[in-house]
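#structure-requests
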Amino acid sequence: MTLSMPELAEARRALDAPLYADLAGDMDVSFEFFPPKTAKMEGQLWEAVRTLAPLAPRFVSVTYGAGGSTRERTHATVARIHRETPLAAAAHLTCVEATRDEVDQVAREYWAAGVRHIVALRGDSPSGGPFTAHAGGYENAAALVAGLRRLHPFEISVAAYPEGHPDSADAAADLDNLKRKLDAGATRAITQFFFEPETFFRYRDAVARAGIDAEIVPGIMPVMNVASVKRMSALCGAAVPAWMERLFEGLDDRPEARQLVAATVAAELCRKLFAGGVRQLHFYTLNRAELAYAICHLLGVRPRAVAQEVAA
């Protein structure tokens, strides 16, 4: 990747500045949550929402379980965020184990509830095997995007894979799939998580060479458990660098220290992305607010006035 003069100046400042103290905070952030399974987890989720809301994210999204396993909880969570907070709520929706009519009905319910943003995903097979389209269902994310566009003028985000989706034959096929989703009407793409800035920069260059000019937002996963991240990475094709395992070695029984290291690693990644011209970030929070809040703070993102308080 060739940096422009402003980006070279920013990179120089990244080396010279006192850590992150002088960053301007000129960055848009968004946050992903998952729907709670228990009362305790629900309390943790709403504490996360209350903590992150003052940072005025562009939107917050709520995930959707394989085969629609969290359909009701996802809908309830998204609807409550929309109803009780000033945040723009986005609902994940997949093609897995549902007919087109069933998926369309879920989308109509979101629109009726006031939700205007869908994160449209193909989804993965609940069995862990190869994805097979449901009889009468949407065959892939591009078809889902087109279907949503026929229903209502949703804002639609889709997924992008800097290291390639495991089901893609090669990098070119993966980019072709991304282009089909965007051409079908998606607004932007949010990347799968990655751990080295060059991974994103190489991908951004490849996207541009492919003639794609849509917004590509880096997805950031603060690492709290290397073993869990390695399992997730194996499913989505992301590489876990060897240096990460060395950094977290010996911290299994020290959760507070592990969280400090996790925030430092993720903030360093974000700082380098910022130096390379990135001004939008999407955080996979795992419903843990403090990590995302700390990283945003280091990047200069501070609380802003919000229209109303988040309900308790």
